[in-house]
Structures are given as structure tokens and as C-alpha cells.
Write a structure and sequence with these properties.
5-stranded parallel sheet, alpha/beta, Rossmann fold, 6-stranded parallel sheet, 2 domains
């Protein structure tokens, strides 16, 4: 753990690592205070597309944590950056919430349901049949299909909820087209994260609770990985995947409390 604590940059997932629902998880307050005290570069990198950095900051403030907006990067921002790099001043039909809509607006995307260049889908609480029908016809007419992230489900206070990949599946099935997903584990998002941190991959670590997004993202980007047991994963689920995290901890607070030379729980 002394090698981890010596890292310059920390990339952290949010749901299952920092909070669950409206509750801060064990060790988070101490971990964030340590990051700030030690002048570490850190980034909360989330596949959630619903909220903007400002909304995420306010959410953490309501839980007792004060983190500046510059420390947040979402799949909505990553999607907006990708679309802007591919087609300046493009048009898009968007299914999603304020975080995605604001991110796309800021890069100059024009919202349209008349022959748009893209159909872009993120998480939303208002997913209606009319939206699916409209998206299907637009894709069949030539619009390119993009998803903010490949998560099938996400955590909620009362269980799990369908996430972007589940919401976009009816459009893929009806059109025979495959969506392009921008969020983790897409290396595009990880490279942007490193740029925002201002450090090389050797000097960074990614902390997450999901093997299929956080840990594989770190492995494919050659960044050291920490899997925490405070979210959706358990020691049993690790064995279901053909790859392993470098470190396994009960919660993110153990980054600063585990003794030197201790790599965490036995897998």
C-alpha cells in the first residue's frame, strides 16, 4: 500500500465507492481529506450521465464533502467531447437527463428530431415508448447510435435499476445497429482522465467497485487497479472474470489505513 499512497493521481468511481444512494460510504471522508491534504491529483470518473459536475458537487456537499467541480468527469462529458471531435456543430436526438443535455449543449450540439446526425442515449427516469419509436426510425434513416456508457444496470437505494446499455438495447434490436459506447471501459475516457490529472499512467491508480467497467478499464489502459467491496462486487464475483485487480480492499478508506506491504484481501 505504500506504493499506492505514493501515486500522484487517483481516479475514483462514485457509486459503490464514494456513496450509495444518499449515504457516504465507510472511510470516504478520511480518504478525500487525505487526498486534499497531500495535494494529490484526483478525479471522480463516473459512468453516470444524469448529473453535471455542479450537481455532483452539490450532492456530495449534502453528504458533508466539499469537492470542487474540476474533480468530476462524467460519461456525459466524455460523450460530448467525443461527438464534438467527430462532427462540429452536429445535430442529435437525445434521450437522457440534464447532465447529458447540458454537456452536449456546451459543445455546440443542436437538438433535433428531424434527420439528426446522431441518436445519443444516456440514463433517464423518463424512458417512454414514443422515444424508442422515434429513435428507431431516426437510426434506420441514417443517424449514428451512441450510448454514454455500457453499464447494463446501476445501483439504487432499493436494489438495481436499468442503465444505459439496457435502455439502448431495444433500439439496437429493432434496427440491427450496434451502439458505440463512450464511457468506461472505453480507453478514450481513461486517456482524458489522465490528461485532466496531468500525470502518466504509471503515476496513477483507478479505484472502482465493478470488474466489468472500472477494473478492465484500468487493465486495458495499463493503470494499477483497486477493487473495493463496498459496491456491487464480492470476492466470489472476482473469479467470474478472466482478469484480476492488483489490489482488493473492503472500502476506499483502506488506501490510507492499511499497513505498508499489505495488498488487501486475499482473493
Amino acid at each position: 500500500m505504500d506504493q499506492i499512497r505514493a501515486k500522484k493521481g487517483f481516479i475514483c468511481d462514485m457509486d459503490g465507492v464514494i456513496y450509495h444512494g444518499q449515504k457516504i460510504l465507510d472511510g470516504v471522508k478520511e480518504f478525500v481529506e487525505w487526498l486534499q491534504r497531500e495535494n494529490k491529483q484526483f478525479l471522480f470518473l463516473t459512468n453516470s450521465s444524469e448529473r453535471s459536475p455542479r450537481e455532483l458537487r452539490l450532492r456530495l456537499m449534502n453528504m458533508g464533502l466539499d469537492v470542487e467541480e474540476r474533480h468530476f468527469y462524467t460519461s456525459a462529458l466524455a460523450t460530448a467531447d467525443f461527438v464534438a471531435s467527430q462532427s462540429r456543430r452536429c445535430t442529435a436526438y437525445v434521450i437522457g437527463q440534464s447532465g447529458l443535455l447540458n454537456a452536449l449543449y456546451e459543445v455546440g450540439v443542436t437538438f433535433s428530431d428531424v434527420d439528426p446526425e446522431y441518436v445519443i442515449v444516456g440514463e433517464t427516469d423518463n424512458y417512454a415508448y414514443d422515444s424508442i419509436r422515434k429513435a428507431v426510425n431516426l437510426v434506420l434513416n441514417g443517424a449514428k447510435l451512441i450510448g454514454t456508457n455500457p453499464d447494463m444496470t446501476g445501483p439504487a437505494e432499493n436494489g438495481i435499476v436499468p442503465a444505459c446499455k439496457a435502455l439502448i438495447a431495444p433500439i439496437e434490436l429493432a434496427t440491427g445497429r450496434t451502439a458505440y459506447f463512450v464511457g468506461k471501459p472505453n480507453p478514450l475516457m481513461m486517456r482524458t482522465g489522465l490528461k485532466l490529472l496531468g500525470c502518466e499512467r504509471e503515476d496513477a491508480v483507478i479505484i472502482g467497485d465493478r470488474m466489468d467497467t472500472d477494473i478492465i478499464a484500468g487493465i486495458e489502459s495499463e493503470i494499477d487497479t483497486i477493487l473495493v467491496m463496498s459496491g456491487v462486487s464480492s470476492r466470489e464475483t472476482i473469479g467470474q472474470f478472466p482478469y484480476r485487480p492488483v489490489y482488493v480492499l473492503n472500502h476506499v478508506g483502506e488506501v490510507i489505513t492499511r499497513p505498508d506491504g499489505d495488498s488487501g484481501l486475499e482473493i
